[in-house]
Structures are given as C-alpha cells and as structure tokens.
C-alpha cells in the first residue's frame, strides 16, 4: 500500500510526511531500546569480570538481535496485511 493510503487517497502535506517520518523514527528507537534491554539481560554476564565482551556474549547478542529484528519484521508484515484487509494502512 502506498503512503496515499494513510491519507484517504489524497496526497499528504509536508507536515503529514514529517509527522509520519517522526513516528516511524520513534517506533524504531523504541524497538532498539527494547532490543538492547532484552538482549543485554539475556546475554551479558552480570559479574562484569572482563572489560570486553566474551566471544559467547558477542555471539549471543548477535543472535538475539537478529531474532529480535526477524520477529519485528514478521509482526510488522502481519499487522500491515491486517490493516490493508480492513481498508486502512500505514504501508509505504
């Protein structure tokens, strides 16, 4: 679905485009914050025995973030499909 679907078939104004981009950036920033919190709790040793990440921690963080992004993409696709079926949408 195009951006025009978000605005009832009409061309969005500059202010609406800026608001849409700001909202998307906010969503991405919130997702990043959640991912860092979740993956850090899961992967990083709480005793902080070393100044650098261990190989195991680095691999865990890499896998955790990849799974997080994959899940986010699948959920976003599903929500966009549902929204399109209901006649609305935020797809670009």
From TrEMBL:
Keyword Chaperone: yes
Residue ranges occupied by any Tim10-like domain in the UniProt entry: 19-81
Keyword Disulfide bond recorded: yes
Keyword entries, A-Z: Chaperone, Disulfide bond, Membrane, Metal-binding, Mitochondrion, Mitochondrion inner membrane, Protein transport, Translocation, Transport, Zinc
Membrane topology: Peripheral membrane protein
GO biological process: protein insertion into mitochondrial inner membrane; protein transport
InterPro entries membership: Tim10-like, Tim10-like_dom_sf
GO annotations of cellular component type: mitochondrial inner membrane
GO MF entries: metal ion binding
Main location: mitochondrion
Record text on subunit structure and interactions: Heterohexamer.
Biological role: Mitochondrial intermembrane chaperone that participates in the import and insertion of some multi-pass transmembrane proteins into the mitochondrial inner membrane. Also required for the transfer of beta-barrel precursors from the TOM complex to the sorting and assembly machinery (SAM complex) of the outer membrane. Acts as a chaperone-like protein that protects the hydrophobic precursors from aggregation and guide them through the mitochondrial intermembrane space.
Record-stated family: Belongs to the small Tim family.
Domain notes: The twin CX3C motif contains 4 conserved Cys residues that form 2 disulfide bonds in the mitochondrial intermembrane space.
Listed name of the protein: Mitochondrial import inner membrane translocase subunit
Organism listed in the record: Cercophora newfieldiana
């Amino acid at each position: 679905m195009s951006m025009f679907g978000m605005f009832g078939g009409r061309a969005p104004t500059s202010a609406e485009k800026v608001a849409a981009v700001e909202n998307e950036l906010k969503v991405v920033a919130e997702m990043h914050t959640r991912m860092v919190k979740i993956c850090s709790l899961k992967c990083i040793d709480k005793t902080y025995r070393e100044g650098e990440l261990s190989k195991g921690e680095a691999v865990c963080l890499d896998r955790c973030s990849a799974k997080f992004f994959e899940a986010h993409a699948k959920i976003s696709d599903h929500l966009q499909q549902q929204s399109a079926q209901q006649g609305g949408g935020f797809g670009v």
